[in-house]
Write a structure and sequence with these properties.
mainly alpha; 434 Repressor (Amino-terminal Domain); 5 helices; globular
Length: 101
């Protein structure tokens, strides 16, 4: 079951919880992601302007999968829902990294 994410703080909590679950310190995670420990600290506190590519790389380093639920929450009388859309995290990460040399 997924965890609803509505804010940058929610993302930070998920990252911190998974890091703890894996027994990783902030410095170890920072090395895996290729960022500073201070960046990890800021993201875990809900940094509002964290770069999406780095967030995705962080989730990947923690073996987390980002899933987007496109089902709209309509009033009780609505029965129609939008189909779920799969997101290819590898493609997003590769795109965020830019062209390879």
């Amino acid at each position: 079951m997924g965890i609803p994410i509505h804010t940058a703080e929610d993302v930070g909590l998920v990252i911190r919880e998974q890091r703890h679950k894996l027994g990783l310190g902030q410095q170890a995670l920072a090395r895996r992601v290729g960022v500073s420990r201070q960046w990890i600290v800021a993201v875990e506190k809900g940094k509002q302007r964290a770069e999406v590519g780095l967030l995705l790389r962080t989730l990947r380093a923690l073996d987390l999968v980002l899933t987007v639920d496109t089902e709209t929450h309509r009033q009780a009388d609505a029965t129609e829902a939008m189909p779920a859309v799969e997101v290819d995290l590898d493609a997003l990460i590769d795109n965020a990294r830019g062209p390879r040399r």
